[in-house]
Amino acid sequence: MATGTLTISLDAVVQNWRALDAMSQSGVQTAAVIKADGYGLGSDRVAKSLANAGAKTFFVATAQEGAKVRQALGPGLEIMVFGGHMRGDTDIINDLHLTPLLNSVEQLTRHFEALPSAPFGIQLDSGMNRLGMEPGEWAAVRDVALGQGPALVMSHLACADEPDHPMNDFQCDVFLEMTAGVQAPLSLAATGGTLLGPKFHFDMVRPGIGLYGGLPFADATPTVHLSLPIIQVRDVLEGEAVGYGNAYIAKSARRVATVSAGYADGLIRAIGNDAKVYAGDTVCPVIGRVSMDLITVDITDLSGTPDALDILCPHQTVDDLADSAGTIGYEILTSLGHRYERRYA
Ligand SMILES: *Cc1c(COP(=O)(O)O)cnc(C)c1O
């Protein structure tokens, strides 16, 4: 079979959720961020597993993403939408019982006019300047909003993956000021904030990447294993080139495997410069350029020719692979392609 096998461990996702849940006190709810199709792992499968483990609140980026999650979960559990209540989303929010996190006075007005008795949350900007009401806006609508009983009042940290960054305490103080006297449940922390400690936990933590085994949750259990079949093997002589642009020239005789997966499968071109794959415990360098469907690998040091090589495995996590591409684990996960045979374990 000329397609890679992506094995996704839902048990590992649950284990990570439980480990993150154990970091906060028992009164603090641990939600689950499953936007971008569960960071590429499948939001339906992830949501169901975490619901079985006890997660009660799920976060998606858009109402459209919420539809797949509602279908998987059925009625009851809460699905919150970071993007809030956008024009055109009223029906889907209403029909599927999604809870938009209202980001602006405009969204608040839209929601209260269209769906006056439907649940909502409030997203505040505490300094990141990405989503949420600024202090002035919030002051203007605060009494009206709180009168309607928001399900959550939340904000988001910009630098939580850097524990010593002064922005963390600064944003925490801004959030405390903006929510003084608020009775609704409060939330500030994603994965990074969950790791920062109790001061950042408030009533709910909202980890995403940590559930999927990525940094900044350094003790996370990896959730994905990706194995790529070798399609062809050849001997390359000293001085011969491999791949597009003759980007690799053999300095000595080499044995080269052509492996089935490329940038169309999420192996972004930037990994090409120093990516590695593994044959069991033996490391093999990726050589030449990543092409759409294929990469080429120097397997000279292997004693035989395996059927497949691993690119995500215990020796190489999503963050290791991200390093070789100058990116972050989040991007590796959310780029995982749809040509792989996906196996859930
Ligand atoms: C993506 C996101 C999260 C989850 O962040 P992680 O770093 O993946 O844990 C939480 N809150 C908001 C507002 C987000 O956009």
UniProtKB/TrEMBL annotation:
Its cofactor is pyridoxal 5'-phosphate. One of its GO terms (cellular component) is cytosol. One of its GO terms (molecular function) is pyridoxal phosphate binding. Keywords: Isomerase, Pyridoxal phosphate. SMART domains: Ala_racemase_C (SM01005). The active site is at K35 (proton acceptor), Y244 (proton acceptor). Pathway: Amino-acid biosynthesis; D-alanine biosynthesis; D-alanine from L-alanine: step 1/1. It comes from the Bacteria. The keyword S-adenosyl-L-methionine does not apply. The keyword Isomerase applies. Residues 223-345 form the Alanine racemase C-terminal domain. InterPro entries: Ala_racemase, Ala_racemase/Decarboxylase_C, Ala_racemase_C, Ala_racemase_N, Ala_racemase_pyridoxalP-BS, PLP-binding_barrel. The modification N6-(pyridoxal phosphate)lysine is found at K35. Substrate binds at R130, M292. PANTHER family: ALANINE RACEMASE, ALANINE RACEMASE, CATABOLIC-RELATED. Catalyzes the interconversion of L-alanine and D-alanine. May also act on other amino acids. Belongs to the alanine racemase family. This is Alanine racemase.
